[in-house]
Amino acid sequence: MRYYETLYIINPDLPEDDYRGVVTKFTDLVEKNKGVVTKVDEWGIKTLAYAVKKFSRGSYVLLQYCGEPGITAELKREMSLDDRLLKYQTIKLSDNADPETLRAEGDEGKEETGVEEGAAGETSTKDEGENGI
Fold it and tell me: Into how many domains does the chain fold?
C-alpha cells in the first residue's frame, strides 16, 4: 500500500459538531475506500499566511493513511465539493508501506514522549494535490 498524508484547513467559524463531522467524514472516506488511517492529528486554529476565501485563520488537520493509488482521487473529489474546507494538499510519503508498522511507530512515540510527533521531518516524493496550502 502507498502511504499518504493530507493536510486540510477547515473553516474556523464552524460549530464543534460540524467540525467533528468534517474530520469524521474524511476519516471514514479513507476507510470506505479500503484505506487504513494511521493518524489524525488536529493542530487547532492557526493564522494563515494570506486570506483564503476571506478567512485569515483556519483549523488545520493532518490525516495520514495507507491505500491504493485511486484513493487520492476520491478524497480530492470529496474535498473539492465540501464548502467547509478552505484548502487541502495530499502528499505521497512512500510507495510501499505497512499500515500496522506505521500505527505501532506512532503509538511508540506517544508513550515515550507523552506527546504526538508531527510530520515536520518527513519529506515528500510526489505532490498529488492541486489546492496547495
Answer: 1
Q: What is the DSSP string of 83-97?
A: TTEEEEEEEEEESS-
What would the pLDDT profile of 10-30 be if each residue is shown by its tens digit? 999 999 999 999 999 999 999
72 Cβ contact partners less than 8 Å away, ≥ 6 residues apart: 4, 90, 92, 128
Which tens digit of pLDDT belongs to each residue from 42-65? Answer: 999 999 999 999 999 999 999 999
Q: Within a domain: residue 115?
A: yes
Task: Quote the Cα angle for 127-131-133, to 5°.
Answer: 80
| Domain harbouring 63, CATH code | 3.30.70.60
CA torsion 108-124-12-28 (nearest 10°) is: -60
90 close to 73: Cβ distance less than 8 angstroms: no
- How far is Cα 57 from Cα 33, in angstroms, rounded to an integer? 31
Long-range contacts of residues 117-120, Cβ cutoff 8 Å, at least 24 apart: 118/41, 118/62, 119/5, 119/41, 119/62, 119/64
Domain range enclosing 60: 2-127
